[in-house]
Amino acid sequence: MNQGILLSADIDFMIHGIIPLEFFGQTVYITTSHACILIVMAIMIIFAVIANRKLKKATEIPDGFQNVIELIVEKLDGMVESTMGKWTPRFVNYISTIFIFILLSNISGLFGLRPPTADYGTTLALGLITFCMIHFNKIKHQSAKTIWTDMCSPLPPWLPIWLPINVISEIAVPISLSLRLFANVLSGTVMMALVYGLLGKIAVIWPAALHVYFDLFSGAIQTYVFCMLTMTYVTNACETE
Amino acid sequence: MDITGQDLIRACSAIGAGLAVIAGIGPGIGQGIAAGHGAAAVGRNPGARGQIMSTMLLGQAVAETTGLYGLLVAMLLLFVKPLG
């Protein structure tokens, strides 16, 4: 379809199937997203194992690598603490984990991978985890009466006309969270693919500036936004008023 | 020159994709307003620069979402080709 519009047709930013698998007569694929997620996970796990080994023999005065680990943990703790307040100890592990995972996924475009977060499956999974956390904590921390009053919110609780709209707005939370992350990373991926595909001859050094914006800046901002919104929603669900 | 139904659908999909990306106007205005107010806030209270910056970036990233929906629609029309 693209031959007429674009100068060269070797523009490629789609997900590719690598290994076909048969399930009940359907063919599904191990895609490039799975491969990239496994690479990101491998990097995280190797880093965690090395950090664990290192901290087993931690010293009072931190040196090189221990300094780096302590800096990362302190920054993440501070970020969660500033939003979640007294709920920090319960959620800090999860939020830090998804922060590092999404950040590494977003900047993996720099290393020639297709970012796993540019696949809607990944971000929808993250959004659904947030959705489950919100409602688990809401049921755990709030009484049924409060939840009902909240759901009928602008009108009194005996008049549930506004209920369907509030239900829809609850369902929209994971969808908008996941689409935001997905579309941002996808737009960066598409822009870089267009630059390299259309201007392949003269794209020598200056695309580095675009990489800094689309991969590093945009990826970091979207990671921060995803974690911040998750924390805000979960904290709201935990507060019993 | 013969124009088949398939060609017509492709042409209209391309036009529709172009129209969908007009959605980028709204977030542009919104982000500009947020940035302007952020600059005014830093002018009034330069000490709170860091907090103002992070709040502004968060708000801008949330405001960007509607524009990205337009981008997604354009992407679907051009590459997934739901209409054939």
The CATH superfamily name of one domain in chain B is F1F0 ATP synthase subunit C
User: What is the total domain count of chain A?
Assistant: 1
Say how many strands of chain B there are.
0
Please bin the fraction of helical residues of chain B.
Answer: over 70%
Overall description:
The complex is a heterodimer of chains A (241) and B (84). Mean pLDDT of chain A is 87; it is low at 1-7. Chain A has helices at 32-56, 64-84, 88-107, 120-141, 144-151, 163-198, 207-238, and strands spanning 17-23, 26-31. Chain A has one domain. In chain A, a hairpin with a 2-residue loop joins strand 1 (17-23) and strand 2. In chain A, helix 6 packs antiparallel against helix 7. In chain A, strands 1-2 form a two-stranded antiparallel ribbon. Chain A contains 7 helices and 2 strands. By secondary structure, chain A is mainly α. Chain B has 3 helices and no strands. Chain B starts with a helix and ends with a helix. Chain B has a domain at 25-76: F1F0 ATP synthase subunit C (F1FO ATP Synthase, Up-down Bundle). Chain B has helices at residues 5-20, 25-44, 49-80. With 84 residues, chain B is mostly helical.
